[in-house]
Predict the structure of MerR family transcriptional regulator.
Amino acid sequence: MRIGEIAALVGVTSRAVRHYHHIGLLPEPKRQANGYRAYSLRDAVLLARIRRLTELGLGLDEVRDVLANDAGRELAEVLGELDADLARQEREIQERRRVLAGLLDGPLTPDAPLSPALVELLTAAPATASPAAAKDREHLSLLDTTAAGDAVYGALRPLAEDPAVLALYERLDELDGAAADDPRIAALADDMAAAVPDEVLAAIPDKGAVATGLEQALLADYPPAQAEVVRRVMRQLTVRMHQRPS
């Protein structure tokens, strides 16, 4: 059989067969004198098994393990892992549907599709035209992708309802365009860090290396003077988090 024939027999494309050759998943038969590869029935059986395994949801590396000799993993083991992964995905989908149902049950606001907990927090906060407050609002939406979101939002509720916080945002707005060594930076950073309740710090999980990347991206979102304020606030909050009793 030629490549087009074995591909048609098994129900895959010739391109897929060539890819399996390229990654070493399917042995490539030697070319005949006429330059064409000659595929045997054994090649077709192996190709059919590859197709069945990929249709079950196995990745090509997992298929390679299954097809390996004694050193390979048992098919039952790989399928068990696949089943556990599908179960995890099913739970995640159910949780997303639960959040979606909550949104559909209530009025659809401009904040949708934020989680109900974050919408409640933002609704409780006093209205303001502060650009810094608007930026914080955007940053909070990142927590909607984590399991800690609801706990952090609940801890932030007293802070969001505190009118004094608006004055902090206004002071931060005033630093837009200022230099990174502006004399107002230190006092504002101290006041902003002091305003964050310990309950908020307790609700924030330790993300390790992820936190480092997030901090860098967060600081890049601010102009120099504001970024320096945020950097100092984050440094003070990190120290407080590490000083919390375990």
